[in-house]
């Protein structure tokens, strides 16, 4: 096994351009000596769920058809559920020796830190933008308000952020990014306090907010009602 293969066995590519990301993944496969016949692209036009990952797992452990190594590219542009990410994490912890795993996503900030820590993360230039400190502080205050206040306040916030489908999606993306940042900070330094959110609260927010984000983005639902259901469940 070559040194370059060992270092790049699990890769996550974050790009807003789906075509470019796939081309990049294919070029990496070629660079690592993978024959075209041994490149397996698992495309998904909807959110990747745990059953999708289980199917992919079986393909990961198949032997290469031609060479000594193969590549499996997981296209997850519509996102991965938290359950799917946890299932994928088990594979990344002990990846098959003969397989390069590449996960292609729209935004790495919606991926669990534990997965990112086990991958070589490649971002395109347009994905390097980050939220300002003001946006992070503002988002954290809103999160705390949702968790700590009563029904009336939660319904008012759902009304404010659910005025349109587009606004709801953008806001949920920002909250997911903020929560992920808080969680990473806590993992790096467990003694660090970020507002009043605990680690368990961060994990709960990630799971519930991502589920609502996926529902609003992919299903024909009323975004305000979806946010109301989310806030009242916290």
CATH level-3 fold name of the largest domain: Rossmann fold
**First-to-last CA distance:** 48 Å
Helix content: 40-55%
Radius of gyration: 19 Å
- Domain count: the total is 2
Order of helices and strands: HEHEHEHEHEHHHHH
Strand order of the largest sheet: 2-3-4-1-5
Q: What low-confidence regions span 5 or more consecutive residues with pLDDT below 50?
A: 1-7
Describe the structure.
This protein has 234 residues and is an alpha/beta fold. It folds into two domains: 3-127, 3-Layer(aba) Sandwich (Rossmann fold), CATH 3.40.50.300; 133-233. Helices cover 55% and strands 12% of the residues. The chain has ten helices and five strands, in the order H-E-H-E-H-E-H-E-H-E-H-H-H-H-H. The protein has a five-stranded parallel β-sheet, with helices on both faces. Strand 3 (70-76), helix 4 (82-93) and strand 4 form a beta-alpha-beta unit. Helix 7 runs antiparallel to helix 10 and helix 9 runs antiparallel to helix 10. The protein starts with a helix and ends with a helix.
